[in-house]
Design brief:
The protein has helices spanning 13-21, 43-50, 53-56, 115-118, 172-177, 190-208; strands at residues 2-4, 6-7, 24-30, 37-42, 60-63, 69-79, 86-93, 100-109, 122-126, 130-135, 144-147, 156-158, 169-170, 180-186. The protein is of the alpha+beta class. The strands form 3 sheets. It has a 7-stranded mixed sheet. Strands 11-8-10-13 form a 4-stranded mixed sheet.
Length: 209
C-alpha cells in the first residue's frame, strides 16, 4: 500500500496546529540507521487509509517528493478525543532483511456453524482480536484466519492453536504466556433453563408413578 508524504522542517506545537488547520497531519518516521524524518500528510488521505484494516498490518510505501520512497510500518496514530481528526502518526522504517514484531488482526470464521453455537447455543467471546507475531517484512500477513468450525461448547482457542503462515511465528512473550484468544461460553440463563427442564421431567415421572 502506498501513501504520500512531504518532508517538513518546522517543528513544535504551534507549527503542528498550523498544519492541522491547513488540512495536514504531522508525522514522523524513525528507525534504521538514518535520523528520524519529520513529514506531513494530507489529512483526508491518511484519514481514509487509517480506516482500512490492511493499512495497520501491511508493509507500506511512503512516496516522497522527487520520486523518493521509503518502506515503513504504521506504529501509532493519535486521534482527536471527540472529532474525526487525525492529530499525529508514527511510522517505523522497515529493513527487508531484518525481522520485525507487530500485531496482526484475527479473522474468526464459521462461528455460526460450529457445534458450540449451532448445537450448544454458546456465546463466542473474543478475548483478543489481534496477535503479535515476528517475521520478515515479506512474510507479514494482513490478517490471520481462525476457523471455528469444530469449536465445541465450553471450548477455548489459545494462541498456540493458530495456523500461522510460513515464515511467521508468535512473538516470544505471546508464545510463553499463551493467551486465550476466544472462549465459547454458554449463554446466560442456558444452564438454568436446562435445570428447569430436568426438574420438569422428574416431576412428570413422579406424577406418572
Amino acid at each position: 500500500m502506498k501513501f504520500n508524504a512531504t518532508p517538513r522542517s518546522v517543528q513544535g506545537s504551534s507549527a503542528s496546529r498550523r498544519l492541522r488547520r491547513a488540512g495536514r497531519v504531522p508525522a514522523i518516521v524513525y528507525g534504521g540507521k538514518e535520523q528520524p524524518l519529520n513529514v506531513e500528510l494530507d489529512h483526508n488521505e491518511i484519514y481514509h487509509a487509517l480506516r482500512k484494516e490492511a493499512f495497520h498490518a501491511s508493509i507500506l510505501t511512503m512516496e516522497l517528493e522527487g520520486g523518493k520512497s521509503e518502506t515503513v510500518l504504521l506504529r501509532a496514530a493519535q486521534w482527536h478525543p471527540y472529532k474525526q481528526q487525525v492529530l499525529h502518526v508514527d511510522f517505523q522504517r522497515v529493513d527487508s532483511k531484518q525481522t520485525l514484531t507487530t500485531k496482526v488482526p484475527l479473522h474468526f470464521l464459521n462461528a455460526d456453524v460450529s457445534p458450540a453455537v449451532k448445537l450448544g447455543g454458546a456465546r463466542i467471546s473474543h478475548v483478543h482480536n489481534e496477535v503479535e507475531v515476528t517475521c520478515l517484512p515479506a512474510d507479514l500477513p494482513q490478517n490471520i484466519e481462525v476457523d471455528l468450525t469444530d469449536l465445541q461448547a465450553g471450548g477455548m482457542i489459545h494462541a498456540h492453536d493458530l495456523t500461522l503462515p510460513k515464515g511467521v511465528e508468535l512473538a516470544l512473550h505471546v508464545a510463553e504466556t499463551n493467551p486465550v484468544l476466544l472462549i465459547a461460553q454458554a449463554k446466560k440463563g442456558a444452564g438454568a433453563a436446562a435445570a428447569s427442564d430436568d426438574e420438569a421431567a422428574d416431576g412428570e415421572e413422579a406424577a406418572a408413578e
